[in-house]
Design a protein that fits this description.
single chain; alpha/beta; 6-stranded mixed beta sheet; 6-stranded parallel beta sheet; 35 strands; 18% strand; transferase; PRTase_dom; glycosyltransferase; glycosyltransferase activity; PELOTA_dom
């Protein structure tokens, strides 16, 4: 029997065959074109066919080295064409959305020039420097929004980059619009392929002559497309016929349906390929903070300079390593960019590929004259017994993992699961960036494996910018929901959206380079947050916090990528000296001992019913007294909107929401906001609340009162926000500071025993001028790494389980509260002033009354001593244990209105504590 080599048994299928056979469309020109391009059909009234690039990294997942290498090669050709002198005077402009990454890569190859890409995203406050229309695109309007206006106003060459030239009209529109404002003598047009007709080529030459400008053209390959006269009508009919094959299949109960396009191709494959399988096993979303360089643009929307490129290159290996450590064992990895956000995900993918594949250069070919080496000759897998060859994909290194790259898009394309068709599968999902042109569907192509399971990605890294990090991203049917059904491991990383108008970038902030613990604690003078205009959106679990998405919306920004923790003694010294505010850094998270954890569980068992009773009393009081009664005919009274003060108030807010649902079937909205003593409440959060709810419906919630400092802070902060009620509802009010409470007993609330591990794994809030701009929420960290010790849901569930047994007692309590004079007595504040004077502290901020506040002192600050009510029992077991561990004396006293009071060390130098970090006697 004759032996056949692999080469002899391969059957190469061009990914344009399906369209060519049905519509009579064909490519003419250079032999390389079928390697670079496939064909598909789309819903577009101007052009039915779509040239699908195998090297662009948009519709077809490709090795990132191939994608970046294509642009690098073209850019080097442009530099050779211009010479270094003119190259250094030039500016590169890429087209949104498909060529933003290609243009960036061309600028990398050119090396000496800044880069700008057009955008369809208006940016508030950024003046438009120009714009133009794209003839055949699904979305036609382009904006140019450079941070530096001189980027476009120079007289050096302009390099215009698009993925393809089909007619040249887009280039004409661009040059015409820009030349009228910023005339220059030379333009260079760059594309992967030049597919213009002879008539279109002549038109461009005539146009350039009229401008008295030179126009050069650089492309990887040239040719044309033969189109039958009726191709548009026939193409639309074909699309309409095959879109009826969209199948709605349930993923599992409670999930949105997965939209899958299926096409039966019996003539080619012997049987229909059927619908794309949807896995019953869904990947959890794991958010990864990269440590994005502070102030570095996320792309070229507002300009990207060679200096920016150097900073990015320097940090890429470190950022890729953070992804790689979460991808151990993955073999086929997709890094998925998001619409215009192409270059950053591409470079991350290339750096990641270098780390996980075992190839030193990440599989990047060395470009030569703009050519890109394709390992498989542009073919796709076939299933008739011959060797499978994938379109445009480089084979992974032997024994190594392989990384691929592609991007979501707004362009609707028909998907047909056939090896001779370029778009085999389509995932659709709603836009998650609140686009200026309104909501609409977005798409990820060739991400689902379809009938060929060898194409399946076992890990996907979704990369979005913070402008797109909105609830729609996490919703059922949203992008993450769609991706989770297609892979075993799903990572999400959010790149801060660069804004020329703010010192810190919008969205999730990034780690400051080279900042020491001392600088973290002391280097920023507190300022009150300025009023602003644009509003971000809340964060929700599980992407932010271990609470479920419906339990609370965090009006915060995610600072998980920052190093904000500083040693307790350094923080205390900086705070007391006035060099820093307590909200500018975080204490190191206390890791409880086994003995302390046992105390927590014991306290929870003994006090769960007591807490449930207080939750019921305060919730019923709010529903009865704090819900505005409106007289609109036919309208039901509005439900209160719970707004907890993060983070101690948040578990209480969740419990109040649960009580209302358990007892009355009411689903109360619940948000968490930051308030900082001496600096006020988060004003951006207030404006968000006012924009989405009637301020009269807002009820602020906290865990307990101490001396009432936050109560006073809130009242002062709301003076400039009419309509909000400054009264706080709390679980326990031992200080007599509020009128809406569950109890005025000072007892152990177990949520005070722990830090983030009983508060959804969220840190206390952070407010620092270099991190929080006027358009941004205050920040906090999500300690995902502490998930193994998280007690947040255990605490909530233990208390909620007692709701039924305390219902009668709650009804009695509510009646008694309604008949009681609950006017604040401020007894606690008077006691604090007395203690401050008696103990020679002379600063009420260093006196922390009540079990909850005393616990905080022992966990976060430098404690001096603890005052305990004589005869106090088990409520103070955890306080005594913590005090013993830190070497802090506990002094029993009489006539104390609280169960205990914690005193912070009044000496602010580190010399006031021993080398072991414990307090010393005065």
């Amino acid at each position: 029997m004759a032996k056949h080599t692999k080469k002899e048994t391969e059957r190469v299928v061009w990914t344009g065959e399906w369209v060519a056979d049905r519509l009579g469309v064909s490519l003419t020109g250079e032999d390389a074109l079928p390697e670079l391009l496939g064909l598909a059909l789309r819903r577009n009234p101007k052009r039915a066919h779509l040239l699908v690039s195998n090297v662009l990294g948009k519709h077809v997942p490709q090795r990132p080295g191939v994608v970046h290498g294509a642009g690098l090669g073209l850019g080097r050709q442009v530099r050779e064409l211009l010479g270094d002198a003119d190259a250094a005077r030039s500016v590169v402009v890429g087209y949104a959305e498909t060529a933003t990454g290609l243009g960036h890569s061309v600028a990398d190859g050119l090396a000496l020039a800044p880069y700008l890409h057009s955008t369809r995203r208006p940016v508030a406050g950024v003046e438009r420097a120009g714009g133009f229309e794209e003839e055949h695109s699904h979305a036609t309007s382009h904006l140019l929004l450079p941070e530096d206006r001189e980027l476009l106003s120079g007289d050096g060459p302009m390099v215009l980059v698009d993925d393809e030239f089909s007619t040249g009209r887009t280039v004409l529109n661009t040059i015409k619009a820009l030349h009228a404002r910023f005339p220059r003598a030379r333009y260079v047009v760059v594309a992967l392929v030049d597919m213009r007709s002879e008539g279109d080529r002549r038109h461009l030459e005539e146009f350039a002559a009229e401008l008295s400008a030179r126009v050069d053209l650089v492309a990887m390959a040239a040719g044309g497309v033969r189109l039958p006269a009726d191709v548009l009508e026939r193409g639309q009919e074909l699309v309409a016929a095959h879109e009826t094959a969209v199948v709605e299949r349930p993923e599992h109960p409670g999930r949105a349906h997965e939209r899958v396009v299926a096409e039966h191709v019996a003539s080619e494959l012997g049987s229909g390929s059927g619908p794309v399988p949807v896995s019953s096993r869904r990947a959890d979303v794991e958010r990864v903070a990269l440590g994005w360089p502070d102030g570095l643009p996320d792309g070229g929307r507002h300009g990207f300079t060679p200096e920016h490129r150097e900073r990015l290159e320097d940090r890429l290996p470190t950022m890729a390593a953070r992804l790689a450590e979460r991808l151990d064992g993955a073999r086929r990895i997709l890094v998925l960019g998001n619409e215009e956000l192409m270059y950053t995900p591409l470079r991350l993918a290339e750096a990641l590929d270098a780390q996980v594949s075992g190839a030193g250069d990440g599989g990047t070919p060395e470009p030569s004259d703009g050519a890109v080496v394709l390992s498989a000759g542009g073919a796709t897998p076939v299933r008739n017994g011959t060797t499978a060859v994938r379109a445009g994909e480089q084979d992974p290194p032997v024994g190594g993992a392989a990384v691929y790259f592609s991007t979501t898009t707004r362009s609707p394309v028909l998907a047909v699961d056939d090896p001779g068709y370029a778009i085999r599968t389509r995932l659709s999902f709603p836009a998650h960036d609140r686009p200026a042109d309104g909501p609409g569907e977005r798409y990820a192509y060739n991400v689902a494996a379809g009938a060929d399971r060898t194409r399946r990605f076992d890990a996907i890294v979704a990369v979005v910018d913070s402008h797109s990090d909105l609830p729609e991203l996490y919703a059922d049917g949203g992008l993450l929901d769609r991706l989770a059904a297609q892979t075993d491991r799903l990572l999400l990383t959010v790149i801060p959206s660069y804004s020329p108008l703010s010192v810190s970038q919008s969205g999730a902030p990034t780690e400051p380079v080279g900042r020491t613990a001392d600088e973290t604690a002391v280097s920023h003078t507190p300022q009150r947050q300025a009023p602003s205009m644009s509003l971000p959106e809340p964060l929700r679990g599980p992407a932010f916090s271990s609470y479920t998405a419906d339990e609370v919306g965090w009006l915060l920004q995610d600072m998980s990528g920052l190093t904000l923790e500083a040693p307790t003694e350094e923080r205390e010294e900086a705070i007391q000296r006035g060099g820093a505010h307590y909200a500018e850094s975080l204490p190191v998270e206390y890791q409880p001992s086994e003995e302390y954890q046992a105390l927590f569980h014991s306290a929870l068992r003994s006090s769960a019913s007591r807490i449930a009773r207080a939750v019921g009393a305060v919730t019923e009081t709010v529903l009865a007294e704090r819900t505005p009664r409106r007289t609109d005919t036919g309208n039901q009274p509005p439900r209160p909107v719970l707004v907890s003060l993060a983070r101690a108030g948040t578990p209480v807010g969740v419990l109040m929401r649960r009580w209302a649902l358990h007892t009355h079937g009411l689903e109360l909205p619940h948000y968490a906001v930051s308030i900082v003593r001496g600096r006020g409440i988060d004003t951006t959060a207030l404006r968000w609340l006012a924009a989405h709810h009637d301020p009269a419906d807002i009820v602020f919630v906290d865990g307990w009162t101490g001396k009432g400092a936050i109560t006073r802070e809130l009242a002062q902060a709301l003076e400039g926000f009419p309509g909000f009620d400054p009264r706080i509802a709390v679980l326990a009010d031992p200080g007599g500071c509020v009128e809406t409470y569950g109890t005025r007993d000072d007892f152990l609330i177990p949520s005070a025993c722990l830090n983030s591990t009983v508060s959804g794994l969220i840190s206390r809030t952070v407010l620092r001028d270099d991190l929080v701009g006027p358009d941004e929420f205050h920040g906090a960290k999500f300690y995902r790494e502490l998930a193994g010790t998280d007690m947040s849901r255990a605490f909530l569930d233990a208390v909620s389980a007692r709701f039924g047994e305390v219902a009668e007692a709650v009804a009695t309590d509510v009646k008694e509260l309604a008949a009681t004079d609950r006017t604040p007595t401020w007894e606690g504040w008077a006691a604090v002033e007395r203690i401050s004077a008696e103990y020679g502290i002379h600063d009420v901020n260093l006196v922390k009354p009540g079990v909850g506040e005393t616990t905080r002192v022992l966990l976060r600050r430098v404690p001096w001593k603890i005052l305990a009510q004589r005869g106090a029992g088990a409520d103070l077991d955890h306080v005594r244990l913590l005090a013993e561990q830190r070497g802090v004396p506990v002094e029993e006293v009489d006539e104390l209105p609280y169960t205990c009071v914690g005193l912070i060390h009044p000496r602010f130098t580190r010399g006031a504590t021993g080398a072991d970090g414990t307090a010393v006697a005065s």
